[in-house]
Amino acid sequence: YQVGIASGRGIEELLTLKDVWGLKEPFDIIIGMNGEQLFDQIHHRRYDFYMLQPAWIKEILDLLRPFHLNPYMIKGKTLVCLREDEEIKKSSKRNRTSIHVVKEESEFYAQPCPKIMFKIGEDQIDEVMDYANRHKKSPYSVFKTQPIMLEFTDKRTNKIHALSVFSQENGLPLTAIMAFGDMTNDNEMLRQVGYGVAMANAA
Fold first, then answer.
1. CA triplet 184, 188, 191: central angle to 5 degrees?
2. CA 20 to 30 Å from 33, out of 25, 95, 96, 157?
3. Cα separation, 174 vs 47, whole angstroms
4. Does residue 138 have a pLDDT over 90?
5. Interval 138-153 mean pLDDT
């Protein structure tokens, strides 16, 4: 059997964290950035799927400006942010990334990126998510991946799309796959595999 991980973290982070977590064997499959990235360890192939376009990223930043948030994104092993606050420091330490504070906001939308994220208090996150959904113009999705984390990705991005590519490339039907998840961004994957399991601590 094959074992893999599907995460909101990027492939580079997950390869580092595997050792931190004490996992001895390599993953057969890594799905990163909620399905935007796929690494098929069996065939040593990497796939990058749908990216947020620069104009969309600028729209997101403009849209959420009234909330005075701290946007950030992951580029390889670097956390790129507007300012270095306590949440950014904790995230960087937890995920073993370096921190880069942008000199100009335009750095965020200089090129396409898998996703952009915001840490928001639990008392405000639903309000911000509702506001973004009501006012957005471009084809991206807005969703929570933690009680205090809001993420924006291309609306076509999801873990089941990446898993389906792996399934087809390896002659492994989705019905033969068991997947575990804990947040709503796992729902499509849990519904379409043979065995979808919600964790006891799931949202």
1. 110
2. 25
3. 19
4. yes
5. 92
Q: Is 90 exceeded by the pLDDT of residue 164?
A: yes
Give the model's confidence band at 19: pLDDT under 50 very low, under 70 low, under 90 confident, else very high.
confident
Contact 100, 80 (CB under 8 A): yes
Hey, which residues does 79 pair with through a beta bridge? 74, 99
Instruction: Give the CA angle between residues 166, 171, 176 to the nearest 5°.
Output: 85
Q: Long-range CB contacts (< 8 A, 24+ apart) of 80-87?
A: 80/107, 80/108, 87/119
* Residues 6 or more apart in contact with residue 22 via CB below 8 angstroms: none
SS3 174: helix
- Position 24 confidence tier, pLDDT thresholds 50, 70, 90: confident
